[in-house]
Amino acid sequence: MQTSSSSSSKKRFIESSSFYTNCQEKDPFSKFKIDDCSFLESVPNRSTCSKCHRSRKYYCYTCYVAVQEISDRLPHVSLPIKIDIIKHPKEVDGKSTAAHAAVLASEDVTVYTYPNFPTYNYDEVLLIFPGESAIPFHEWWSSTVLSKRQNNFLKINPEQKSIHFDDADVEKPTKEVNCPLKRIIFIDSTWRQSKALHNDSRLKKLRSVFLDDHKSLFWRYYREKKETHLSTIEAIYYFIVELHNLLQPDVPYHGQYDNMLFFFKFMYYKIRTLYDPLKLKAYQNSTVLTK
Questions:
Q1: Would you state the pLDDT for residue 20?
Q2: Helix ranges (DSSP H) in the chain
Q3: Which three-class secondary structure state does DSSP give residue 277?
Q4: CA 202/CA 225 separation, integer angstroms
Q5: Residue-level pLDDT at 141
Q6: Measuring CA to CA, which of 24, 44, 45, 262 is 20 to 30 A from 241?
Q7: According to the model, what pLDDT value does residue 276 have?
Q8: DSSP assignment string, 63-126
Q9: C-alpha angle 190/191/194, rounded to 5°?
């Protein structure tokens, strides 16, 4: 029998979840420019993956390809940087949102299953992980990329003792910034599993950064985690937007990467249509899902 204390605790978990807090909002995706995904509702049956020949509905979450019936209708997103996703071997493939990125940005996203992933060059990559030594991504960018850019400018212009980029009288380098990174790494796992992965020497030695807070729309809730605890596809999306704004500070973001959330939006509304958040089995079960 469940005690009133545990019931109250579970109630707090539920009411703090993004799925619960957004369930009364008519369109929480209204700020995004995402292609119409309603045609996915008309997909009648499961199909065979063209690579592994397993039965799949919309895409194969092991081969990361769309089923033939809808492949020509999906958006294709081109990213400004390559992304590697390292997936914990116990992460359930069919539930992970990492597959969304690999399908929609197939030329720029690669998924590896731990422990099989490359050894990275420290100077060419960043790990998105809120570890103890991690700093905000924009702070790393300012202290590393912009600082190096300023030093290079002063070497070329030795008479210029300092640079004040907000001063109209000072000659400025071009506003567009070159990214020194070749690849960004994400960990795809539950929070507990991610700590184990991060302890791998190949990852622990890398520079770690974390993103600004963004409100998640993920339908699973987390024990003792804030509503800013993002799913993998949301983290990738918000990182790419942050990177865009840093690379091209004078070019407003117009939603060119919003389709990374194409499947995410579809699944969100599918779940919200089928289930009342207050009656959803996973939300009523005593076991709290973490990813």
A1: 55
A2: 4-15, 18-21, 98-104, 137-140, 147-156, 191-198, 201-204, 232-247, 262-274, 281-284
A3: coil
A4: 27
A5: 92
A6: 24
A7: 59
A8: TTEE-TTTGGGS-----SSEEEEEE-TTS-GGG-THHHHHHHTTTTEEEEETT--PPPPGGGEE
A9: 85
Q: Give the residue from 34, 104, 97, 33 showing the smallest Cα distance to 71.
A: 104
- The token duo for 136 is 């905000």
Q: Are 100 and 40 in contact (CB under 8 A)?
A: no
Report pLDDT for 136.
Answer: 94
Q: What is the pLDDT of residue 109?
A: 98
Residues in the chain with pLDDT values less than 70:
1-25, 147-176, 220-227, 275-291
- Site of tokens 């973001």: 253
Residue 195, pLDDT score: 80
Residue for token pair 């030695």: 205
Place of tokens 């960004």: 184
Overall residue count recorded for the chain in this entry: 291
Residues sharing a CB contact under 8 Å with residue 186, sequence separation 6 or more, in sequence order: 83, 84, 85, 86, 98, 128, 232, 235, 236
Nearest to residue 288, comparing CAs of 224, 236, 199, 222?
222
